[in-house]
């Protein structure tokens, strides 16, 4: 890893096509800052992106990257990390991508606890498909496909992560640049699966969960007596309805990442020219 | 036709049928006899009929036949299920004390040996050894030296302690002695032993072994019959070579993990069966568009839907050739024997990396779960070659950068193959995507670039056709008027059917095709034949359709889709029938 990496090194030369004012700009800047500040270089970083406006992030960042299919970014990240644990893996996507079509993978990625970072750009709407309800949309939020609102309670991603034995659960607000970058940085530094749900407003399709709304409602955990290492503190905050927290809600200091508990440490790209030297032993097992 | 001996043990699932059958098969293999096993099993763990069948000869055996010489029947149903295969002089070993066997009916002309399996096992140290007593009885009937059973018992029970091994040996001897004392007739079987040392393995194991030999280090899968054995084989073994197996939450995850690992530079694989292939279809397209080398193993079973999960079929050919939206270049390799499962797996990894695309490696249930003996040299590890294709490192990456120093993972090349850079390679930074893209991997809807990228991906297939032999396996008379084609596990039955047909004076040229796509050009072979017969285990003749499409010639189809593999004698009869009908038709028009 090179120490003189600047966050702009993680910027590609592609011009983002996000709507002016989209929260994803700030989310991405914070991710790039966090990567640079933790001493990673684009050569040794792999970004996996989901599908959605949020998923375009893989194009705008500069690193090894894969822009996959809808909802399946997390397993791709797992594969990269296990095949080469030296690579820094960051997975990013939207709330639809992560909590709807990819919800199953989310729960299992959390409990698998591979040492990577997952950033969800939560705009509480489907942006790319032009404004349908997402799993985090409010119960009465009227959209083209839910004219009366979804009439189902939104999912609580932090609660899902806690229930799935998450070891690092955080939330940030994309426009609060300093704080957001700092929280993502802690997620990167966490030994295990670092999960950050980012409020990343959609200025085009969501007129409820706006910058103003979040500005007015966010409570920064740094301003409270919250102890992120306390499971009970985390649980009561996460299950507190209607509260929009910013900060690290839970951090398991004993977290042992999957790679370590499973003894996965080899760079698997490195293989011999022929069969392993003792491969005939594999045959002899069948005597 | 080798002098073969056919043996089976059958009972209810949970009766230990599998492990008992395997002990006998291993004993035969260790005594230098060739073995071919097959299993009748139902999709349940307890209850329901299940049987393990062993065909053995001093010559190689590669198929099953419609004949059973000795049957150990733990239930009446075992006899009923096998009536067709039992014949005059067949020996049935059973325990008349068992409640299920009290009113046992031994069919006319067959020999029933009532052996108190349970009581003798108890005498030897525990009722659980009942099946081993039966094995001892089978040794007496077949004049197979019981010492050969000992080493198989040691292998099976060795890690449970010497006492258990000794008890089992004693149990086997009790079974043998009981038969010798109570039945003094000669049964007419004699299982000769040789000094050869064979290995005994099934197709799934051969695939797993081939994967390790080929340098596969990452496997992600979700359990499904009959592919699970691949995963079970790799678990615990791949780690010894620095690899890892993940049991994913579902098939979507499995293929995506495997994709991620492949992008990180690992030789990577997933294995599943039909329903799993359906789930993987979306990512399959991404694998191809992102030009990621990946081996996807499909161990076919009866479909559609959950179909008959424990039964044979070759019904997924179309799904593999055409599955997924859009047009996706892919290779489909179908090993035709258990040994070929090993060799084709190695080849699948090389092809995947050389051409940077998804490779379907498909076995069918019959190959996957049945075992066959081979001389160990058949799996010559020194002959394994690993070809990684166009992988760049820091020294060569510069050749593949644009004027601004950006790496071109989808460079337009004459052969259609672009360079690959693994993370960690300085100067190789790039993004891949399922979206249509330019040479740099950037999304594009430019009409010209779209066409050039599609052409580039498609061109790999032509390149492979030029560079790889993709030859069929041939046997029989090359000048015969009849051409018989098959794919997958039918080869073994075909080789043995040939012996039956030879005896009848029926000659044919046989081609067994392990490369389904790209496939060899069979036009000349089909044109040269008066009649082409295509043999496969499905109802519609998916492979036959391909041959007709390629050669513009009508073929005759022999299909089987009852869930059971072709038996050699059955197949010979069906081929003979086709030819006899033709002759009849000719006479009628003469
Ligand atoms: C299998 C599949 N189904 C549906 C889609 C269409 N689709 C693209 S993005 C998207 C939703 C994206 O929402 P979200 O993850 O919240 O991301 P955002 O665009 O809001 O950032 C959908 C449904 C798809 N690409 N693939
Ligand atoms: S539609 Fe919404 S989420 Fe998508 S780019 Fe525009 S503002 Fe951002």
From TrEMBL, chain A:
Residues 202-262 form the Pyruvate ferredoxin oxidoreductase beta subunit C-terminal domain. PANTHER family: 2-OXOGLUTARATE OXIDOREDUCTASE SUBUNIT KORB, 2-OXOGLUTARATE OXIDOREDUCTASE SUBUNIT KORB-RELATED. It comes from the Archaea. GO terms for biological process: cellular respiration; organic acid metabolic process; sulfur compound biosynthetic process. Residues 51-198 form the Thiamine pyrophosphate enzyme TPP-binding domain. One of its GO terms (molecular function) is thiamine pyrophosphate binding. It holds the Pfam family TPP_enzyme_C. It comes from Haloplanus rallus. Keywords: Iron, Iron-sulfur, Magnesium, Metal-binding, Oxidoreductase, Thiamine pyrophosphate. This is 2-oxoacid:ferredoxin oxidoreductase subunit beta. Residues 130-153 are annotated as: Disordered. Its cofactor is thiamine diphosphate; [4Fe-4S] cluster; Mg(2+).
Automatic annotation (TrEMBL), chain B:
Residues 210-454 form the Pyruvate flavodoxin/ferredoxin oxidoreductase pyrimidine binding domain. The keyword Heme does not apply. InterPro entries: 2-oxoacid/accept_OxRdtase_asu, Pyruvate:ferred/Flavod_OxRd, Pyrv/ketoisovalerate_OxRed_cat, Pyrv_Fd/Flavodoxin_OxRdtase_N, Pyrv_flavodox_OxRed_cen, THDP-binding, Transketo_C/PFOR_II. It is an enzyme of class 1 (oxidoreductase). GO terms for biological process: organic acid metabolic process; response to oxidative stress; sulfur compound biosynthetic process. Residues 457-477 are annotated as: Disordered. CDD domains: TPP_PYR_PFOR_IOR-alpha_like (cd07034). Its EC number is 1.2.7.3. GO terms for molecular function: 2-oxoglutarate synthase activity. SUPFAM superfamilies: Pyruvate-ferredoxin oxidoreductase, PFOR, domain III, Thiamin diphosphate-binding fold (THDP-binding), TK C-terminal domain-like. Residues 457-476 have a biased composition (Basic and acidic residues). Heterotetramer of the KorA, KorB, KorC and KorD subunits. This is 2-oxoglutarate synthase subunit KorA.
